[in-house]
């Protein structure tokens, strides 16, 4: 019996190798890997939705690896995807330091690579930035202006009368969180400069992870320790941290009393805005990875020439929603439907890089409304 | 008099007194350091509410940890059972949520126990493998939730276990069940006996394999209850992969360490509950002092080590497993 099982297992493994070999050789459809923190949480599942739609429209195979923003898993995901025969990968890393290893893996395996939701900061990470510029396989990065986003959210809170603002992050040292935090601090500085007699305070952050139960426990601890806080910024973390934080505020009977702003749209944001659960939210950026996908797709197809002294950079806009009416329009074009249909996605794949960057910058609810008329 | 004192020092009341003194000690430190935003009666109930879910898991873990076994798949079980519960709740309301969490949890316990018994390899290795399997299954199950809020409890009519009194009722019932099993059933006695000396227990005629299997089933039944409380507490569960669920193993385990340390006083359940409460209190106290989360983890870990070392240190020259 054992011999039969051994022979069958050996044949199965050998067969899978042959099958894998055939797949690599035929190479008809490009294979693009997606290294993402989670493909199932609120934001991650939306990203997956738009990438799947683009892959279907362009006849591309996609492969997902969830790495949870754990550094060694982020670098490992690039190796996994390269070993799986991907022609290109798009990646949302946690810290910029990881990109040195990711770029090295991609260059060694001749796999094109683009970052989404992230860019390597030239000043903070000069070595990684140099690697990115020098690699002919590092295509570029699509990212949001996180500092402006942070400033805008703080400005919304201050204008709504909040002066003591608590902050819940998701992971200490995360590159995006650090940028957003810098934005919140800059927003407070701006406000205090313009309103010296009515100053606002931003409390130090506590980190609630990326799950709703840890998000709630941390939010409760923050509110308990800052009983005078009139606002809470949940910096992000994929949406589940915010779900937990809202549960904490509701359980304490403070819904509407503590104004909550965040980045990463919730699926029930309209309800939260209508009932006072949320004061405002920036988000709608789930299309960001679509543009990274387009960069890599065009690099694989040979349409975008990569350079050994620079890379492409696309800045993606945030959408801001502060009322149910705002959200209704967003929900119609971004939740119930996708902002780009199959024809538009195919047309997007034909754009030059500057046109693609312009396309990304122009995405808004109004833009989609105009295209659907 | 000294005989009475010696008897008291080895009895349950001494253990409970030590636990209460420790709780008061930590409360006092943080209350003095941060009088305005720590330790009021209202806040203490908040800390208790947060800690009870971990205490439930800690009670379950006690069954196997006391026998020298370990299970890394607890976090993955919480994730999978919660997601199954949420999925069933869409159709069957509370029944679906409770049944989904408890049945799925217990089923995983049967599976873990059977695999551990049949494969005859260390529990840590078996359960690491199972953790990966369960995480993958959870990721598949969450895709079956087409509600638009995968894994989230969005219906406000199904959140009774999110707050008092139902979360307390469930948790206290679980603690009483644990107390009953440990004190009044063969299972509790045999688990302790196997943990003390497996060979002697076997020679006494205890069916070791059977009771290890039962311990795994009980552990995961309790984990199912913890899943019910956790998913209600956070109003949702995130499906994770790549061993990310591992993190969920350690908070219940901290409580179990308290239980093991105070086993000699005959009060493991009380120790688990108060131990988890102390850990939650330390976390909240450090947040009240505006201590960064990274230092918070350091302090919590160090305090745990100190408490367990002081209460459960082996005799000089004894063999530590």
Describe, in plain words, how this protein is organized in 3D.
The complex is a heterodimer of chains A (373) and B (321). Helices cover 52% and strands 16% of the residues of chain A. With 373 residues, chain A is of the alpha/beta class. Chain A folds into two domains: 183 residues, Response regulator (Rossmann fold, 3-Layer(aba) Sandwich); 139 residues, Rossmann fold (3-Layer(aba) Sandwich). In chain A, the strands form two sheets. In chain A, strands 6, 7, 8, 9, 10, 11 and 13 form a seven-stranded mixed sheet that branches. In chain A, helix 7 links the parallel strand 6 and strand 7. The longest helix of chain A has 25 residues. Chain A is globular. With 321 residues, chain B is mainly alpha-helical. Chain B is globular. The interface between A and B is large, with 41 and 43 residues.
Short description:
The complex is a heterodimer of chains A (373) and B (321). Chain A has 373 residues and is an alpha/beta fold.
As a percent range, the share of helical residues of chain B equals over 70%
Distance between the termini of chain A: 67 Å
Run of helices and strands of chain A: HEHEHEHEHEHEHEEHEHEHEHEEHHHH
Any idea what the radius of gyration of chain A is? 22 Å
Overall morphology of chain A: globular
The radius of gyration of chain B is 20 Å
Number of helices of chain A: 15
Q: What integer is the average pLDDT of chain A?
A: 89
Contiguous uncertain segments of 5+ residues of chain A:
21-26
Largest β-sheet summary of chain A = 7 strands, mixed
Tally of individual helices of chain B: 12
Overall average residue pLDDT of chain B: 89
**What is the percentage of strand-forming residues of chain B?**
under 5%
- CATH-defined fold name of the largest domain in chain A: Rossmann fold
Q: Please name the CATH architecture of the largest domain in chain A.
A: 3-Layer(aba) Sandwich
Overall SS class of chain B: mainly alpha
> Please, what is the oligomeric state?
heterodimer
* Number of beta strands of chain A: 13
Q: Hey, which two chains have the biggest interface?
A: A-B, 41 and 43 residues
């Amino acid at each position: 019996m054992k011999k039969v099982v051994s022979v069958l297992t050996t044949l199965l493994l050998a067969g899978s190798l042959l099958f894998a070999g055939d797949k690599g050789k035929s190479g008809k459809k490009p294979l693009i890997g997606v290294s993402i923190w989670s493909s199932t949480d609120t934001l991650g599942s939306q990203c997956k939705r738009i990438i799947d739609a683009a892959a279907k429209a362009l006849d591309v195979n996609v492969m997902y690896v969830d790495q949870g923003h754990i550094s060694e898993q982020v670098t490992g995901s690039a190796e996994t995807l390269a070993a799986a025969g991907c022609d290109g990968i798009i990646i949302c890393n946690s810290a910029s330091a990881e990109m040195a290893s990711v770029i090295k893996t991609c260059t060694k395996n001749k796999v094109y690579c683009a970052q989404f939701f992230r860019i390597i900061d030239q000043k903070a990470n000069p070595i990684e930035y140099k690697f990115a510029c020098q690699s002919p396989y590092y295509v570029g990065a699509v990212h949001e202006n996180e500092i402006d986003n942070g400033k805008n959210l703080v400005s919304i809170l201050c204008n709504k009368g909040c002066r003591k603002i608590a902050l819940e992050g998701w992971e200490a040292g995360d590159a995006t969180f650090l940028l957003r935090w810098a934005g919140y601090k800059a927003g407070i500085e701006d406000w205090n400069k313009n309103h010296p007699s009515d100053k606002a305070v931003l409390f130090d952050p506590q980190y609630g992870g990326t799950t709703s139960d840890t998000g709630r426990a941390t939010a409760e601890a923050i509110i308990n320790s800052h009983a005078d806080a009139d606002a809470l910024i949940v910096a992000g973390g994929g949406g589940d941290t915010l779900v937990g934080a809202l549960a904490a505020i509701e359980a304490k009977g403070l819904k509407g009393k503590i104004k909550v702003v965040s980045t990463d749209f919730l699926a029930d944001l309209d309800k939260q805005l209508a009932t006072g659960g949320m004061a405002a939210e920036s988000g709608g950026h789930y299309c960001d990875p679509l543009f990274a996908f387009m960069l890599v797709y065009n690099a694989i197809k040979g349409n975008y020439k990569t350079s050994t002294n620079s890379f492409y950079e696309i800045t993606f806009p945030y959408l801001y929603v502060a009322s149910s009416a705002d959200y209704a329009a967003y929900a119609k074009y971004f939740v119930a439907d996708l902002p780009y249909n199959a024809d538009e996605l195919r047309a997007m794949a034909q754009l030059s890089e500057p046109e693609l960057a312009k396309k990304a910058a122009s995405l808004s609810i109004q833009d989609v409304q105009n295209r659907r008329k | 008099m000294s005989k009475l004192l010696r008897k008291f020092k080895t009895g349950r009341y001494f253990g409970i007194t030590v636990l209460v003194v420790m709780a008061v000690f930590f409360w006092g430190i943080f209350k003095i350091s941060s009088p305005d935003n720590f330790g009021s009666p209202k806040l203490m109930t908040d800390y208790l509410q947060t800690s009870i879910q971990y205490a439930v898991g800690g009670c379950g873990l006690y069954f196997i940890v006391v026998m020298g076994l370990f299970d890394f798949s607890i976090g993955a079980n919480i994730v999978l059972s919660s997601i199954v519960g949420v999925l069933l709740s869409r159709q069957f309301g509370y029944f679906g949520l409770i049944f989904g969490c408890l049945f799925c949890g217990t089923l995983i316990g049967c599976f873990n126990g059977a695999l551990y018994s049949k494969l005859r390899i260390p529990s840590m290795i078996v359960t690491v493998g199972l953790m990966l399997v369960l995480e993958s299954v959870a990721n598949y199950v969450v895709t079956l939730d087409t509600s638009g809020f995968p894994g989230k409890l969005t219906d406000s009519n199904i959140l009774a276990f999110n707050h008092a009194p139902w979360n307390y009722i469930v948790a206290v019932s679980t603690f009483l069940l644990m107390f009953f099993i440990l004190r009044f059933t063969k299972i509790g006695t045999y688990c302790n006996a196997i943990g003390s000396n497996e060979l002697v227990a076997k020679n006494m005629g205890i069916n070791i394999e059977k009771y290890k299997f039962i311990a795994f089933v009980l552990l995961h039944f309790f984990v199912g209850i913890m899943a019910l409380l956790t998913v209600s507490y956070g109003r949702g569960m995130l499906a994770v992969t790549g061993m990310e669920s591992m993190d969920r193993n350690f908070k219940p385990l901290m409580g179990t360490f308290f239980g093991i340390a105070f086993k000699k006083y005959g009060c493991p359940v009380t120790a688990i509950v108060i131990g988890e409460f102390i850990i939650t209190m330390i976390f909240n106290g450090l947040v009240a002092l505006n201590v960064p989360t990274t230092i918070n983890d350091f302090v919590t870990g160090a305090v745990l080590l100190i408490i367990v070392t002081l209460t459960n240190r082996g005799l000089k020259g004894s063999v530590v497993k």
